[in-house]
Amino acid sequence: METSDAERKQDSTKKLKNSTRNREFAVIAYSFLAIFIATMGYFAYFQTVKSEDFINSAYNARQDSFSSSVIRGKILGAGGEVLAETQVDEDGKETRNYPYGREFAHVVGYSTNGKLGIESQANFNLLRSNTFFLQRMVNEITNKKNVGDNVYTTLNVDLQETAYEALGDREGAVVVMEPSTGRILAMVSKPDFDPNKIATDWESISGDEESSVLVNRATQGLYPPGSTFKIFTTLEYMKENPNYEDYSFQCRGTLTIEDSVIHCFGNEVHGSENLEESFTNSCNTSFSNIGVSLDKTSYRKLCESLLFNQSLPGPFETKNSSFVLDKNSTTMQTMQTAIGQGETLVSPYHMLLVVSAIANDGVLMNPYVVDHTENADGTVVKEYENSEYGKLLSKSQAQIMQEYMKQVVNDGTASALKGQSYTAAGKTGSAEINSNRDSHAWFVGYASKEDSGKPDIAIAVIVEGAGTGGKYAAPVAKQVFDTYYGQ
Amino acid sequence: MVHIIVEVSKYLMIVLFALYTYECFAVFRRHKSQEHQNRIFKSQTRLMYLMHLDAFLVMLAVTEELKYIGLYLIQLILLVVIQLCYKIFYKKASRLVVNNMCMLLTIGFIILARLNFEKAVKQCIIAVIAIGITLLVPFIIHKLKFFHKLTWVYAIVGLVCLSIVAVMGARSYGAKLSFTVAGITIQPSEFIKIVFVFFVASMLYESTEFKQVVKATIVAALHVMILVVSKDLGAALIFFTVYLVMLYVATRKPSYALAGLAAGALASVVAYKLFNHVRVRVIAWRDPLSVIDREGYQICQSLFAIGTGGWFGMGLFQGMPDKIPVVESDFVFSAIAEEMGGVFAMCLILVCASCYLMFLNIAMQMKDQFYKLIALGLGTVYGFQVFLTIGGVTKFIPSTGVTLPLVSYGGSSLLSTVIIFAIIQGLYIMRQDEEGNKNHDEKKKRKKVRREESEKPAVGNQRRRKKTGFDEEIEELD
Q1: Which chain A residues are closer than 8 Å to B470 by Cβ?
Q2: Where is the domain boundary, A31, A55, A79?
Q3: Rounded mean pLDDT of B174-198?
Q4: What per-residue confidence (pLDDT) applies to B474?
Q5: What is the DSSP string of A232-292?
Q6: Does the beta-carbon distance from B300 to A59 stay under 8 Å?
Q7: Mean of the pLDDT values across residues B233-249?
Q8: Is the pLDDT of residue B219 over 90?
Q9: Which of A5-14, A66-75, B4-13, B447-456 bottoms out in mean pLDDT, i.e. has the lowest?
């Protein structure tokens, strides 16, 4: 009896020992279990959240294989207007139809012979069907095509039509956005093409290198900014000189520094001016005078913080604007750069983002053009919310600039917009492109109307080779503003 | 018609595999009788055969090529033979491990037959050979008792083989991993993994004093360094992790593990600064889309495949897994996820996890420290490799280019993994014998006790319930 008791005791301590001996094993087992669970968690996260970024990539060759099992969804305007739809005839032949034809050519794009615009950006959404899954299973099994999701854009058909008409036969671009949200309301580029005939006319459309019809000038066209660049020069001067209000300059129509000569437009003599008056008059001599006084490194830094030499936010294919001035630049280069000539290049879309930030007290919202997607039955699949891109300017910088830009309308080069039911603000520009004094007409600005219940809108207009911004670009902006505020 | 077969089978295979996976874990549940467990194991094999059949029917329907029937029959015979051999010769082997091994092989067979018929045939031949060779392994492990005495033999074999490869090896995908003898390409690091586990186990079995640990660490570090120089980052990481895990468990000192992790972190930074091929992988991991034309191409293709497949997959032959470079070996998981679905892929991870847990379970149940460490080491080799490959192709961690054991194409990988599974079976059988003897003794003892003093309850029996929860859970598999 004694021995068996002792034996039992020994036995139990051995067991106890065995269990503590296994503690490290348990630690390892649980750690690896955790790793496996984390891997599965990541996999699930990827499938549900992240995968869209990858599937949407234009490099994903699998997208097009969807078109064999899905009828491409519609693209619609903000008011539900059909901008693109696929029609299936009795034989099952599919045709992509664009009811507005040329008006939305670049922004909506096309989906045959390659892809462009929203057709390209939202390709995956259009080819993915989120109808009721049982319906889809039945379709898959019976080999019937599913109906793809519909993409609702932020595009305002009235504004787009107005802008399209306002540009007339001129080449150029108009792009409109809500500064407080980043919604793109209109985007026109000319020369244009008819997306309904893209397949039949492909040779002539893509082969035309001189006017490069397929290039969306709003986002990919790079132009000298002309006097609109004085916004940047003014901001830099205010940054370097807290007493900028004391600035004063005597304009004689011409300014010569070290053999470099700058004229005011039409050799006009503006007389004695402060900074705000120089801005309102768009006085070239005053701004070249300011330019040479600036710290070029700091100047470049400011421009880069305002998206020069950077890739621009938003869903579009864009070209980077360029600002090349550095501390080795000559006086002539500096003087020209300060007034928006020289080597600086900018896209209308970039200028739109900068004026939007100014109108929105310095904060730039991420631009977007797809508002939400719905399945064929009208249930929302995914909604895109607006988000801040960042603070480009301080609130006080933005507000001073707002005042200056309003002054341009009230008492300066953009008087075409004066005396409306809404308050407009902006800056004109006439970018000289050759020695014949031909110039691209620019207008960048925004409009607001209290009690209208509508958010402010910002606009960038360029009319190629037309003449002065005040005469040719500002009226385009006026028509768009008028339509927006319902006049 | 073909379309219906593809679509229905897609969902059917997911259901079959999900049921199989469920049963992998259901078997762990407490208070299941032996009989009940056997029923589960039988059901698992049935599910496996069904899935295999279904997949080949789909491939036959899509391609209309009769060669798939031949391949199917050969594979079917192989699977049946494996099941029978273990049933006849190794009655005490773990049936869950056998089933999982067969299931993983089957999935590999299916996806390889879909991706590349020639390679599928090759893989099948290698599997036959591997199974043939390793049928003896459990017996050898069970009978021969001198494995713990060969410490330095393991070290020398390991270091010499790895060095030969590093110096002479053929270049494959920027890493010197393999050499070719008589037309057969061998990747030694796959086998040295096993030898290395035996080395570390016998070293730490002898003693866990500081001096011994230093010696073991130096040899282990040499292994890892040779692998890093030969650019086999995946293998280097596996060796490193295995050593750290075994060291921690054997010495029971978390400080060693922490010091090891710190050293590893430092080494990673140095390797990142020093070697371009390390930097490339990290760049591709961070933002693959931005470097899709170069470093990120492979991982992007993999993620396109996984993402486009979604939860239910495209169906066999309905996706484009061929777009992924080396899809048959390192990126086989992406092909599975694309065509067989995300749900299927998740189940695959779970089955691998169940294998790993079974290995660790065996490690805990063994009595002898040497064999405990062997089971732990081999389990870690397996588990960590699964993590590296799946984590790598899903961009959870930077890709290191290792295979998915038993599923990926590759002779060395397949053979070495089958060996690992066979060794584990040997250990499992050994433990069953121990247990059998013990039960036998205990029964006798208890009888004696009961006879002499029937009113006292057995203390040992009560203690038994006080083990850690993990122990308890898997004890039911006895």
Answers
A1: 26, 29-30
A2: A55
A3: 76
A4: 43
A5: HHHHHHHHH-TTGGG--EEE-SEEEETTEEEE-GGG---EEE-HHHHHHHT-HHHHHHHHH
A6: yes
A7: 93
A8: yes
A9: A5-14
Shortest Cα distance, chain B CAs vs residue A151, angstroms: 19
Determine the pLDDT at residue B468. 43
Most A CBs within 10 Å: which of B320, B463, B475, as the mutation test of the A interface? B463
Instruction: Output the pLDDT for position B163.
Output: 85
Compute the mean pLDDT over every residue in chain B, rounded to the nearest whole number.
86
A186: in domain: no
In this prediction, residue B466 has a pLDDT band, given cuts at 50, 70 and 90, of very low
Average pLDDT for A401-427: 92
Show the DSSP H helices in A109-247 as ranges.
Answer: 117-121, 123-126, 133-142, 157-167, 202-207, 217-220, 230-240
CA distance A60 to chain B (A): 6
Q: What CATH number should be reported for the domain holding residue A403?
A: 3.40.710.10
Mutation for testing the B interface, residue in A40, A42, A136 having most B CBs under 10 Å: A40
Q: Which residues of A touch B289 (CB under 8 A)?
A: 53-54, 57, 59
Which position has the higher pLDDT, A151 or A130? A151
Q: Which residues contact B94 (CB under 8 A, 6 or more apart)?
A: B358, B362, B424, B425, B428, B477
Residue A93 placed within a domain: no
Q: Which residues of A touch B252 (CB under 8 A)?
A: 23-24
Task: From B2, B104, B414, B376, select the one nearest A25 (Cα to Cα).
Answer: B376
Beta bridge partners of A256: A261
Start-to-end C-alpha separation, chain B: 48
Q: In this structure, are strands A150-153 and A75-76 parallel, antiparallel, or unpaired?
A: parallel
Interface mutation target, options A23, A54, A67, chain B, most CBs of B under 10 Å: A54
Helix (H, G, I), strand (E, B) or coil at A82: strand
Domain count, chain A: 2
For residue B293, pLDDT over 90 is answered with no
Cβ distance of B289 and A53 shorter than 8 Å? yes
Q: What is the mean pLDDT of chain A?
A: 88
**pLDDT band with cut points at 50, 70 and 90 for residue A5:** low
**H or E segment and range at residue B55:** helix B34-63
| Location of structure tokens 């615009």 | A117
In a domain, A67, yes or no: no
pLDDT at B47: 96
pTM for this one?
0.72
Nearest to A54 among B8, B303, B311 (CB): B303
Token digits of residue B336: 């599975």
Mean predicted confidence (pLDDT) in B137-164: 85
Q: Do B467 and A19 count as a contact with CB atoms less than 8 A apart?
A: yes
A264 is written with which tokens?
């005011």
Contact at CB, A54 and B310, closer than 8 angstroms: no
**From A35, which residue of chain B is nearest by alpha-carbon distance?**
B387
Range of the domain at A30: 2-55
Residue with token string 């004689």: A252
Cα–Cα distances in angstroms (integers) from residue A18 to residues A30, B252, B436, B463, B468, in the given order: 18, 14, 18, 11, 10
Model confidence at B443, pLDDT cuts 50, 70, 90, reads low
Residue A382 included in any domain: no
